[in-house]
Amino acid sequence: MNIDQHLQRVEQAAQRWLQPDNMALKAAIDRTVAEELFTLEDIKFQIRTLKENIDSGQISEWAERAGLSDSKNSRGKKVLCLHAGNLPLVGFQDALGTILSGADYYGKLSRKDPYLLPTFLDEIQKVLNDQKVKYSTDLEQFVKLKSDKVLFAGSENSVPTVKEELARLDLVNSGTEFVIRTAKFSMAYIANEDPATITDLVEAIFRYGGQGCRSVAVVVSPIRFNSLKCHFQDYIEAFWLKNPQLKKPTEALAYQFAYNKAIDRPQAWLDHFLIQESEEFPELDFTLHWVPGDESKLKELKERFGSAVQSVYTAGEKIEGVETEFLSQAQRPPLWWKPDGVGVI
């Protein structure tokens, strides 16, 4: 496997895929929006992020970071990717990483996002010589695959059921390696009220309607929420004016609001999102938990929440003993970011 030629072919195909005149991608976007699977704003945001990453040379850098070479690769291996569908193109990283590694890619697409990723895979197929790229929304299309590795993202509760189905269809064997990611949300530590920081925080919380493991569900801050509430709400309302489709009020949020009011818990009810001072585990969608505290409180909660936490973001502050990422990159991760701390390649 000539890794340099391989990387060049994949990079060029990815760049062609992201060109404005790609009619296949445009049709997939239009169909996704028409069927109300994702909003046009969220799809455009995701595609812009991918284009910035790819145009800046991150494909080659990712391969270098992973140590890919002519002799170190996964050529001849079969990788089954079970893609989630909670965000637009959420399966792109697994697909690209598998293809970069040289492995044969088999993708089970989510029926919640069935149109976007295939336009990339079809473009990639045109440049690969002896590397298989197959996809379907029906897992039975891969029956008796006996894959070498399975990549899967989902809830811990779903893992046993998924494994049973894979075994039933003879998609795995005793030697299959499972890479299962179950992180649920991310955290942020906010130490100041700088407008740029608050803007980044709002994006990290509300992009994609608060869905996805990189979305912030818990903020730890020495700033009390009551003193920040009005300032924070201004940014939130401005964000929602641009993204009115994200409003999804639920009975569960209304019930939680009433409960918080009964116990005098500080909160902000935004009709479609609830912010509350609470150290409880984030169970409800469209809810942000604001926790008064310092770095020691952040460490305590991160340890308590365990593997449910994907990332911890700051505005640049270093926290001893905690691996952090820049808040501004919460929804704009590099290609090589590690879901659940495990590199895809």
Q: Could you describe the 3D structure shown?
A:
With 345 residues, this protein is of the alpha/beta class. It folds into 2 domains: 179 residues, Aldehyde Dehydrogenase, Chain A, domain 1, CATH 3.40.605.10; 157 residues, Aldehyde Dehydrogenase, Chain A, domain 2 (3-Layer(aba) Sandwich). Helix content is 39%, strand content 16%. A 7-stranded mixed β-sheet has the order 8-9-10-7-6-11-12, with helices on both faces. Strands 3-2-1-4-5 form a 5-stranded parallel β-sheet, with helices on one face. α8 packs across α9. The two termini are 16 Å apart. The model has no long low-confidence stretch (mean pLDDT 92).
Question: Brief description of this entry?
Answer:
Helix content is 39%, strand content 16%. The chain is of the alpha/beta class. The protein has a 7-stranded mixed β-sheet with strand order 8-9-10-7-6-11-12, with helices on both faces. The protein has a 5-stranded parallel β-sheet with strand order 3-2-1-4-5, with helices on one face.
